[in-house]
Design a protein that fits this description.
Elements: H1 3-6, H2 34-47, H3 52-55, H4 58-73, E1 75-76, E2 79-80, H5 83-97, H6 101-115, H7 123-139, H8 143-163, H9 171-190, H10 194-212, H11 217-232, H12 236-253, H13 259-274, H14 278-296, H15 301-314, H16 320-338, H17 343-358, H18 362-379, H19 385-400, H20 404-420, H21 426-439, H22 443-458, H23 471-487, H24 490-501, H25 504-518, H26 520-549, H27 553-563
Antiparallel strand pairs: 1-2
Helix pairs in contact: 2-4, 4-5, 5-6, 5-7, 6-7, 7-8, 7-9, 8-9, 9-10, 10-11, 11-12, 11-13, 12-13, 13-14, 13-15, 14-15, 15-16, 16-17, 16-26, 17-18, 17-19, 18-19, 19-20, 19-21, 20-21, 21-22, 21-23, 22-23, 22-24, 23-24, 25-26, 26-27
Length: about 575
């Protein structure tokens, strides 16, 4: 198992002091230290074994420990030999792969401290240590610290690439560069620094292609991850381009059993949902989750992501009863795999809270949404992504429930976090302003903010080309209508309804209604079609339930196919 490929989840963390100077005359190939190099080579051979069980075995740990214990006793300029640090960094890699992140942080920190004066003599080991430490610090909740560490690792890597002849840069070096940039992008995104995240992820994609070629499964993963970052930065057209590249290359070059195949379908499905093409989206996501079930089973994070993503597409289709159990199942799966403060379990629980709110169970929704926020805050106070998902649902629910003080606190947090987003477009800012005014019980300011919100929604630049509303736009309309109802502002309600009426669905409904009046025969045909659509919806629900429970899938799929 190559160390550079094992650390594909790196993110960012800690700032170290400027590199100390190595003792004069030090050479990694000093013949006096041949025994240490032999111990390193023996441990490396075990860790690089194609036998995963052997590579992660106690035998391999013991080999790295022997190297550390021997190197710590050998002094170079009064300091322990740097291979002692290399040994600890490799132990930290094993810890991280095993999910023992606190141990990984301890080993990586100690290893970096030993290696720091000799970093330029062992550049790959130094960058690997930074990568691991950055990743585990982020995983343990220090997102800002992780971002700083990975920024340092990326800067060092850029210098290493610049000063190394191209013919001496092998696949592992490019792969390590890709992994560092990937982790950096993930941390930047969690901090709301989306423009920087796009740049980092593009660097990761380009390095991955240099390492493994443009058609490999690893490159496909880089394409769809870049698409995700573009989507978060509101570059939907470019995001769709890379999502379709990923699907095309997966279809042409990758076995459908490889995780990248299903993930490519999934990312395109999510993007299509975001841009209003939800029926087409649902097809991609159902295909993705079926492949995941067949290839990896249901006891994996990979499958839980599929459940959550499918539910997130059902929500804007108002299929709350279908979406909610998918979120709850994903929440249990994430918590089982990642622990009680899992950020992904919090995200799934937040979605389940939104579903409960849509079905009128306000108290249950508030409990779920506040629990989701608490889980994220237990690990970090710098993760802004969850607030953007939770607050637009939580604050109105608190206000209607009469919990005004909690609503004011939440609204202040939401407004501050939204202002900190580097690409905050008008809609989130208008949402935050309206919620702040409403929570503050300022009737005049609430009405004015809500009217500005409706104006933003009416703006053609915030509408999708196909006329359908995004999830954020629907949340904005719901907020405007809720304010109008509570303040008895009929003009505001009519303005919000006019935006809704401008959507493609409303336009189609008007045309259908007109034609039905004019053509009774067509009316009969439409009613028959509507009955069949209802039956297809019911079959969809049965298939979704079957997929979630792993029971009766073949029969449910056949029934749906016949109706379709």
């Amino acid at each position: 198992m190559r160390l550079s490929t094992a650390i594909s989840a790196v993110i960012l963390a800690f700032m170290v002091s400027p590199l100390l100077a190595a003792p004069s005359g030090f050479s990694p190939d000093d013949p006096r230290h041949a025994r240490l190099r032999a111990l390193r080579d023996a441990a490396t051979a075990l860790f690089d074994s194609d036998d995963y069980a052997l590579s992660m075995s106690q035998k391999t740990r013991d080999a790295w420990t022997r190297l550390h214990d021997a190197a710590i006793r050998v002094k170079v300029g009064g300091r322990p030999h740097p291979l002692a640090g290399i040994a600890l960094i490799n132990l930290s890699s094993m810890d991280q792969i095993d999910g023992r992140n606190p141990d990984a942080l301890t080993h990586a920190s100690a290893g970096l401290a030993l290696l720091e004066p000799f970093a330029d003599a062992y550049p790959i080991g130094w960058m690997q240590g930074l990568s691991i430490k950055g990743y585990v610090q982020t995983a343990l909740g220090d997102v800002a610290g992780g971002a700083a560490t990975l920024a340092q690792a990326s800067a060092y890597m850029d210098g290493y690439i610049a000063r190394t002849p191209a013919e001496k840069l092998d696949k592992d070096a490019h792969m390590l560069r890709s992994n560092i940039a990937f982790s950096h992008a993930q941390a930047l995104s969690r901090l709301g620094r989306n423009a920087e995240a796009v740049v980092a992820q593009k660097a990761s994609m380009e390095a991955r292609i240099a390492a493994v070629g443009p058609d490999s499964a690893d490159a496909i993963g880089a394409y769809y991850t870049y698409s995700q970052m573009l989507m978060r930065a509101d570059h939907d057209a470019e995001a769709e381009r890379y999502a379709r590249i990923a699907v095309d290359k997966a279809t042409d070059h990758v076995d459908r059993k490889h995780p990248s195949y299903a993930r490519a379908l999934e990312q395109l499905g999510l993007l299509l949902s975001r841009t209003g093409r939800r029926i087409e989206s649902l097809d991609y996501l159902q295909r993705s989750i079926a492949i995941k079930r067949e290839t990896v089973g249901t006891d994996s994070l990979y499958f839980q992501f599929g459940l959550q993503n499918l539910g997130s597409v059902l929500m804007p289709l108002e299929r709350y009863a279908d979406a909610e159990p998918l979120f709850l199942e994903a929440e249990r799966g994430f918590r089982k795999q990642e622990g009680d403060n899992s950020p992904q379990s919090a995200r799934a629980l937040a979605y389940a809270g939104a579903a409960a709110l849509a079905e009128g169970r306000r108290g249950e929704a508030i409990d779920r949404l506040t629990t989701a926020l608490a889980r994220v805050r237990a690990g970090s106070d710098k993760d802004r992504d969850m607030g953007q998902r939770v607050y637009p649902y939580l604050i109105p629910a608190l206000i209607v429930a009469g919990r005004r003080e909690e609503a004011r606190t939440a609204a202040a947090d939401f407004a501050a976090q939204t202002r900190d987003l580097d690409n905050a477009p008008p809609l989130p800012l208008a949402l935050a302003a309206t919620l702040s005014a409403w929570a503050g019980d300022d009737r005049a300011a609430t009405g004015e903010s809500a009217r500005r919100l409706v104006g933003v929604l009416r703006d053609g630049a915030t509408m999708n080309d196909n006329g359908e509303l995004t999830e954020d736009q629907r949340a904005g309309l719901d907020l405007a209508l809720a304010v109008a109802a509570q303040t008895q502002d009929g003009a505001l309600a009519l303005d919000a309804m006019a935006v809704l009426a401008g959507s493609r669905i409303a336009q189609a409904n008007r045309l259908v209604a007109q034609r039905l009046v004019e053509d009774p025969a067509l009316a009969a045909r439409v009613r028959g079609l509507q009955d069949k659509v209802k039956a297809l919806g019911a079959a969809d629900s049965r298939l979704l339930k079957a997929l979630a429970t792993d029971s009766g899938i073949a029969d449910a799929r056949a029934a749906r196919a016949a109706l379709a």
